[in-house]
Amino acid sequence: MANPVRGAQLWEEIAVVLDSIIIDTQQPIDINNRAIWDPYLHAWSNEDWEDMLTIVDHAVKTNPDIAQDYHRTTLLNARAALDKGGNRALDKRDTKRYAWAAIMSMREMYNKLHGWDIRNAPGQTWPRPSSDTGFDEIFTTD
Fold first, then answer.
1. Closest C-alpha to 78, from 89, 68, 87, 66
2. How far is CA 58 from the centre of its chain?
3. Which residue among 24, 80, 102, 114 sits deepest, i.e. has the most Cβ atoms within 10 Å of its Cβ?
4. Which domain holds residue 111?
């Protein structure tokens, strides 16, 4: 059974890492960026992906405006690759593109939840603090 609290933590961590790379380097993130593959995409298990995809699915159901059609398609592709099974299903040569696209979509949806506009492009800066509800408040565990 998926652990959505853990999934939310992983989702937040990768979103912040990706945003930091974009802002710090002032460059878009390439699919072959070692800063995301070595510590994250090559390290995550099927359970990690299940946890993240479960909470992202919940977030989209409760906040449908965070996801565009291409986000939904990207997440469906990642889910299909994960459901095919195998050890580390999203860390294979033929599923690499689904893993990368999924984290990039998750980053955009995380930012949308916060009201941030950080594009995968040069010239990005951290947004000023706003009066958003905050990631932790959206996913209460009552």
1. 89
2. 13
3. 102
4. 4-120
